[in-house]
Predict the structure.
Amino acid sequence: MVALCGTAVSAVAAQAQIPQATIRAEVPLVNIIFSALEGNTRPVPGLKADDFLVFEDRKPQKIEYFSQLTEGSDIPLTIALLIDTSGSVRTKLDDEKATAAEFLRSILRKSKDEALIIQFDSEVRLVQDYTDDIERLIRALNELEAGNSTSLYDAIYLAVEEKLKGEVGRKVIVAITDGDDTASKLKKEQAIEAAQRGNVLIYGIGVRSREFGANFGVLKKFAEETGGGFFSPQAKMADIQAAFKAIGEELKGQYSLAYTPANKTSDGTFRTVEIRCKVKGIRVRARRGYYAPNSASRSAAPPSIP
C-alpha cells in the first residue's frame, strides 16, 4: 500500500458531495467548486446561477444546485498544507513557516474546518494529522527542518489518496515549493489524475531562492487542471504573505454548482467541463474535468513508496 511515512492511513473511497446534492439519481451529480474572479485574484461575490453556463464535452448542461460558499457556509473546508523542506528552499523555510501559520489562523473555522501538514523532501511525511487546533498546527510547522531532494508529485498523490479523497466538502491542497521535483517515484500525471478523481483543488505558491533556480511550470499545471490557483511571490516574506492572503480570500468567496450530466454512460472516461460567466470581465477558475463513474480503464496502481 502506498503510505505516508509515519502513518498507515487507509484511503476511503467515498465521493464528496455538497450538502444540497443528496437526492438519489441513476447518474451521480457532478459537483464543481469554482472561483469567479475579476482581474487575477479578486473574488466577485453575489453572483447567481443564471450568471453562469456549464458545458460538458462542449455540450450545455442544466445547473440543478448552486450556492456561494461564504464564511458562514456549513460546507466544511479541509486543507492539506504541503511544505517543501528540501535543501533548495532552506533559506526561505522560516518565511514559509511564519506565513503558513498566519494563513491557518485566518482561514480555519473552529469545529467546522480542519487542516493537516505534510512535509516533503527526499520523503513525504505526515507531521500533523487532521485538527482544528491552530496551536497544534503551528507547533508542527515550527518543528520542520530542511532536508535534501524534492518529492512534490509523491506528496500531492499521497495527500489525495491517503488523506483527502474520503473527506466531504471542499478539499484543498496548498503546496509551497520551488516546483523542482527531483525525487518522486510517481509521475506528475498520476498526481493530477488523483486530484481530479478526488475533487481536490490545488493551490501552488512558487518560492524562489537566490542559490537555486525554480521551475514553476508544474505548479501552474496542477492549479489549472484542478481549479486552484498559482502564485509566484518574490524572495521577500511580504510577497509570500500576499500569496497566502489571496488564497484565503478566494477560499472565503467560492461558489459550488451541481448538475446531472446529459451523458449517462458510466464508462470511466474523462469528461471536460467548462464554466462560463455571462457577466463581462469575470473569469471562472474551475477544474477542467472529471472521470465518469464505474471506470473500467482506471490507471494501474502506482509503485509503492517506502
Observations:
- Residues 16 and 167 are 6 Å apart (CA to CA).
- The domain at 77-251 is CATH 3.40.50.410 (Rossmann fold).
- DSSP finds six helices and 15 strands in the chain.
